[in-house]
Amino acid sequence: MSSISVVPAPVSLTERAGDPFRLDAASAIHARGEAAAVGDYLAGLLRPRTGFALPVGSDEVDAAGIRLTIEPDSADPDGYTLLSGPDGVTITAASAAGLFHGVQTLRQLFPAPIEAPLAGDTDVVGVDWAVPAVHITDAPRFAYRGAMLDVARNVFSVADVKRYIDAIALLKLNHLHLHLSDDQGWRLQIDSWPRLTEIGGSTSVLGGGGFFTKADYAEIVEYAAGRFVTIVPEIDLPGHTNAALASYAELNIGGVATSTYRGIEVGMSTVDTTAEATWRFVDDVVRELAEMTPGPYLHLGGDESLTLSAEDFARFVARASRVGAASGKTVIGWHEMGQSGDLAPGTIGQYWDYLVPRADAAAHTLSFVEQGGSVILSPADVSYLDIHYPDSDRLGQDWADGPTSVEQAYSWDPAAIVPGLAEEAVLGVEAAIWTETMLGMGDVEFMAFPRIVAVAEIAWSPAPFGTPGAAPDAAERSFAEFSPRLTAFAERLDALGIRYHRTAELAWR
Ligand code: TNX
């Protein structure tokens, strides 16, 4: 049986006759111009464990090695081709992002110990650093492949967020949505409203307070950019706002500040949607957020506003979306925002209802498309990573039709949930993790992995054979076919020290 195993599954992978490529002390990484940064990143991955010098950019060095080439053409900027054989490995892409994704595939073609930290100098000897001879062509099904991390319910450090960025980049996810505010905490410095972090940032569900300064946020944005990940900041409005309401009395209906909140109920808070102070607050927060965010998106929440009338809610989100759009960004909102038919044109909806939409979820989602926008799919019963596993309720919750198995997280199609939502209107897929029950990255990783691997494959890989709309020559993927690739990948998680739940569903190695 072939030992070649890649997640997410590439569009096509063909084994070639002939010897593998062997990385050795004389190998070089050939990469120039824009490709050089990806070459440096690759060298940073390969040098520690192999002990090889791996000079980058040295086209003049006549050494076999890994060649990273940008060939701008009409191909998908996120795609790449990878050709390996005894003379070397060549990755070709239309952009540096495509090369980066090719490098993530190449990592998985090396023996798993390539990912392990060095325990001692003698570790570098003895491994045959061979890459099998293959021809891979690959490109993503969806342009937006995301993960959401709730840094509001509990506090996460800059180092934690960087670690999660590295983990998701491995899976070719290219957006990290940070849920920066909620009832239990406000986690981002806003200069014009300093009490948001002084008071609103002082609490969390399980631990103490904390927030990201603007310098912290800039550091996260830059680190993410180096891994071709775009940060999508979310300030949740008009509900999920108790941290702000406790910080500023004038945002409240009735003008009295609330107490800080450490519980895990949802839906009880709202800003006063008609107060002049509320609109100064929205204007200022959006302006500062847009100034510090180079990416194209601002997420303005809109979920579970359960105390406002439908009319007040619709009026609020319409105006908020226009404030967001006026900042030059494209606004994203949870699907409830689609209750308004007066959103800024092009506003993107994020669907969080179930595989079978309940109540008005489908209609609210289609409303974004009618208003010129597209949709990100995060169905809670399969892509919410905080829902219990069938054999572990140590962390997480189970409201979303839980528990959720790895097989369930793998067995759905983004284009088959909302009737009438065409594949072209699906911008992408996002796996969210809400952290009410989680303290630190160890807890997050245990809940996210391995299910996030399943969701990443849904976001990247072509619709499998048998799925409506799949290409006639689509691969025959199934949970049975995915499972051994997932357990093989887990050896890399072991080497990287990324925690995951060894659910009884899978035959772990
Ligand atoms: C719902 S689904 C939420 C979050 C909670 C989660 C779990 C959605 C958009 N919002 O605020 O964290 O349930 O309690």
From TrEMBL:
Please give a single GO biological process term from the UniProt record: glycosaminoglycan metabolic process
Membrane-spanning ranges:
none
**Cellular component terms, GO, for this chain's entry?**
membrane
* Entries under InterPro entries matching the protein: Beta_hexosaminidase_sua/sub, GH, Glyco_hydro_20_cat, Hex-like_dom2, HEX_bac_N
Q: What would be an example GO MF term here?
A: beta-N-acetylhexosaminidase activity
Keywords recorded for this protein, A-Z: Glycosidase, Hydrolase
Give residue ranges for domain Beta-hexosaminidase bacterial type N-terminal: 4-139
The catalytic site is made up of E304
Question: What class does this enzyme belong to in the EC scheme?
Answer: hydrolase
The catalytic activity of this protein is classed by the Enzyme Commission as 3.2.1.52
Domain Glycoside hydrolase family 20 catalytic residue range list:
142-462
Q: Which SUPFAM superfamilies match?
A: (Trans)glycosidases (SSF51445), beta-N-acetylhexosaminidase-like domain (SSF55545)
Q: Which family does it belong to?
A: Belongs to the glycosyl hydrolase 20 family.
Please give the name of this protein. Answer: beta-N-acetylhexosaminidase
Q: Which organism is it from?
A: Microterricola gilva
| Lineage of the species this protein comes from | Bacteria, Bacillati, Actinomycetota, Actinomycetes, Micrococcales
